[in-house]
Known about the structure:
By secondary structure, the chain is of the alpha/beta class.
Amino acid sequence: MIKITLLGTGGSAGSPQIGGADGTGDWGELDPTEPRNRRSRPSIVIEAPDGRRLLVDTGPDLRLQLTGCGIPRIDAVMYTHAHADHIAGLDEIRILNRLLGAPMPAFLTAATLGELRQRFDYAFKPWTGGSFFRPVLDTRLISAGETVDILGMQVKILPQGHGAIETLGLRVKDFAYCTDVAWLGETALAALENLDVFVVDCFTRATPHPTHANLDQVLLWVARLAPRRTILTHMGPNMDYRWLCKNLPPGVEPGYDGMVMKLP
Ligand SMILES: [Zn+2]
């Protein structure tokens, strides 16, 4: 069995965004009285059958996400891409290093590694033993199209278009996570057939967005792939939780921070 926890299901600014008339946050079209509209930056944890945990992305809300979801330890990290909403909690890996007692295995593309090295150069210096006063990553390069063994799980790495850059999606057994995606080619679509659970970027229900799928696009993918269950993530300020529950077709639902799923 694998256990998936959605740590965060919001867009790059989270919801509410900083701002609002009284400074307590700008909710856009979201109902502030619905707790599931409070969304942190997108990230998930996949717990392997042996209990070890893979964290996908280290966003700026990481500490509150792990403590809020009761996740005490991480055994490996995978990066989808190097945008700030997916990497800027990287310094929290220092604490995860202490818990692990070792450099953190980090699976990422050469392009993402290049970005991270520029912005967090200290995290890539060799570990000389002793205490972790800075994050220490043990990098493993991956490429879209490969299937990689991570914590004993066979993880299929999928190519995705995110406007000007490429991001990585992933599939483990019949679960897939495709965040920060506006475009999926035939290779990725073929790898996403017969899913049990499809967690997918859906930033907006308005007109097409240059870097994220909108609801129309997600429903086209769902029509083609027919996953048993589709869960929306990376949701922006017009994706009200209760509106979505009422208006989405059967089998499609909004995710929420802290949502847990168990798959055989
Ligand atoms: Zn993002």
